[in-house]
Amino acid sequence: MSPSEARTLSAPVRVSFDYTRSVGPVLGRFFDGLREGRLLAGRTGDGQVIVPPPEFDPVSHDAVTDFVEVPDTGTVVSWSWVPEPVEGQPFDRPFAWVLVQLDGTTGPFLHALDVAGPDEVEVGQRVQVRWRDERVGAITDIVCFEEPVEADDEPRGVVADDADAAPGVAAGGDATPLITPVNLAYTYAASPEESAFFRGLQEGRILGQRCPACGKVYVPPRGACPVDGVPTTDEVELAGTGTVTTFCIVNVPFMGQKIKPPYVSAYVLLDGADIAFLHLILDVPAEEVRMGMRVEAVWRPRDEWGTTVENISHFAPTGEPDADFESYKVHL
Amino acid sequence: MVGFAHEQMTDFDGSPTMVELLVPLFREVYEQTGFTRKDIGFWCSGSSDYLAGRSFSFVQAVDAIGALPPVNESHVEMDAAWALYEAWVKIQTGEVDTALVYGFGKSSAGTLRRTLGLQLDPYTMTPLWPDQVSLAGLQARLGLEAGLWDETALAEVAHRSLTDAELNPHAVRRGGSSVAELLQREMYADPLRKHDIAPVTDGAAALVLAADDRARDAAQRPAWITGMAHNIDPQHLAARPLTEAPSARRAGAAAGVAAGVEVAELHAPFSHQELILRRELGLADGVHINPSGGALVGNPMFTAGLNRIGEAAGSIWRGEASKVLGHATSGPLLQQNLVCVMEGTAR
Q1: Average pLDDT over residues A286-308
Q2: Domain tally, chain A
């Protein structure tokens, strides 16, 4: 369906954030080990040896302080096939996840296995870690598991009970933060009411809706009247004129800012509406903007219009006398 | 428990605040109970902004209530079954005697197999983006290798669910064929076939609780909650046997599952997880499992667990059973589990 035929408007949106976390003393040691191409396990009170080391003992809840260096070889105890990998996974082609019991440990460790098809992996298979050449102290320092180059059943390396003796592993590297970029893609849909609002803007109209119970006019329209909890039904076209109810002067620069500070962001109560609308007040020095100031919408050139509130470039003073405080005081 | 309504679909084309779905669901439970919004003492919802990328969607969803004058409200970033737990506790305190619990989620807005990567250990797992289907496949194979279940047992669960779904108008996947035919279908996320994996589902739900005489006024045969409990297992994959769900066992015991349950609605998004839950909850062979078809025929994030409890209550309202349980799960591999036991007669 073309956007004009669909019930609602939608658009792609990406949300991304780099989570930056301190790793603490236990995972700090684990990540320090990875940077050096070593695997550190934690030993729990009931004798389990597990990778990654848990920060706290799952049974006794004591802090885990007993570390063991283990070989980077092990045995597949389970696997699952990924026919359609998603962004961020170790491979962008079909691959297997494996639970590997590393030699010298008692529980499973999760990572990917580099095989071309599900017929190349089986429970009981011997595997070894493929290390990344440039390691930073993160779980991704392990590229994946792979078949051992020399097909023997011997552990590569030995179990070193006293991990503190291993050079470079003793210090605990919790000073280096771990950065995990998270980036998610969505298709964001507007509600039917919001879609009508955006389609109206494309035609140079400002559309609101009236609550059938209390008669209040909302712009942009909402799915339900927040006072009565009933759908707003009647469409109302609003004038492009209104009153500044409250405002702030933006003096602080921020990422993505399009206008040079200082400028004014204001609530404009459109004539005929019962809820104010957030927009910019321009064409007037910031210090002259005031509560009660009468303003009107300044539209961009028609050939730039889309289904967006940016069709209205900003609001500018009309030159009319200020509105009485009484006329907008309930909207503050 | 005196009212329940829900909606689920493969692809909701409206706003992720889901006010559009919640308003008619609220109206439906008002009609069931005779309550109006003024009768509701406490509101509690379950949802997550990660699902559809809309910030503060639970605040926007409050529009569906009509919150002027202000209402007594709370929210959990979990399946709405945990909102139900909060509401139930609130009623136990005596502060309120009615509550409306709701939840909503638009899984289709993003890629659920990525979004759920964010519920894993953020240091050692999320950076690899393991998806929930692959993790479930690892769990299923551990059980296959250990002889705890076989492929036929998985197909039997799927076949029964798809067959029962034919009577459920809300199912987004339905139509049993035969266990043999299901086993003929090709592997997807080996060892799982597509029918072993809950479909990505959008949905919303509302459920009403009332105490004592308020409940008797609102329903002919209320489903009386006789026990509810939830527990959680450690997240570390090596910290528990992955083919078990000790937290489900413990929650079931605390909620009083012990004997006499006739109908159990289990929130098992993967075929083999139903088998784990049946064992952990000690459900006898005669217990009717998932008459709704369960999560395998519709798994709306943040309401699929609440739906299990609402569906189980329905069999009490209709006089089909006198003791039932609803179960909800959260987190990877049945990490967290909630069990709610209901009876047709007040204690």
Answers
A1: 96
A2: 3
